[in-house]
Design goal:
Oligomer: single chain
Shape: elongated
Structural class: mainly alpha
Radius of gyration: 23 Å
Number of helices: 16
Distance between the termini: 36 Å
Order of helices and strands: HHHHEEHHEEHHHHHHHHHH
Strand order of the largest sheet: 1-2
Helix content: 40-55%
Amino acid sequence: MAQVALALAFDDEPELPRGGALPLPEPDSPERTGFELGWDFARHGLVPPAEHLGGGCPLRQGWEAGLASTGQRAPRASRPASRHVRKWLQLRVQAWRRGRSFEGVQVTPHYLAQIDTAVCPVTRTAFTHASGADTDASVDRVHNGAGYAAGNLAVISLRANQAKADLRWDEARLMAVLAEQRPGGMADGLTAAEWARMAVLMSFVTPLPHEVAASLPLLMLPPNRLRLLNPIQGLQALVTRLLLQPGYAAASQRLAELLPAGEVRRDFQLVFHSLLPRAWDAVRERDPLRLRQRLEDAWRDGALLRRWQRFARHLDAAQAEALVARAARSGLGGGPGGTVVQLHPTAQATEGWALETGGYIASRAPVPRPLAHRVAQA
């Protein structure tokens, strides 16, 4: 189950050099990727990073070819490049330098604008931009074993990104436990609550046994366009999101009617009515962000989680996915701002993620440090 952009954006291909120009590198080679990247820097009127301006660097060659194609000696664009164009180029440079896979059909400046947000979902602090502070927004590959691809990217703070490093979701969960046990309540730069939210974020894009996914609290609602690989978490998010929209009582009743009458339906209603007081908390929260965070925090309640786990035991992964599909077709997945739940076939959900090579263009992923080593250094 996933949220996915349907619109595709295609970038211009560099024209073949003519006359005495250098030959264009072979397709799909690192040199060709660097050349096309340099071309796009020129196209948007930007100068590549200084470390890639050496004479033999394919990025510089592409940049110079791009300038020459328009008769320019210096970069010039009809309008300034947007923040999302600059971030798109920055991510591509990072991926190229590290040998990471970058899926360029769907991951565009427009896509980066769609996943942008004002507040870090992990630390809950407002983002800064290009300030050098640890509150700066950064685009993270949520699944560390996948590349830069649609559905695997989220915007989090630099502090959260650096703390996450190369951890797996279950290691992030362990870090939350370690932070709770420390006098300052911190481990490796994040608090226990922040680590717990990080673990849930990472679990969304990690295929888990159904029973494990069903046991997790929804401490973070999925960021926009993130693909949820565990159907029961998709259902959990859909149920919680009902309280973000007007008419949630009628919507919950419509969802209940999609369930078999009897114990299953009663257990669902217990979950929803346990969530409802958290949404109100004496007064209905009008601020969308605070309401969202209030609902996320509601899942810290042990009684609510136990009721959810009891309800989830009635369903297997296929049944949960079918229920989400029926709910989406009934218009129950919508929300504020025209939010739409979109389903993606399982085989296509991770298309372009390069999971078979650990997110690299070639299988050359470094050996990760053991968690015990990281904890000792924290």
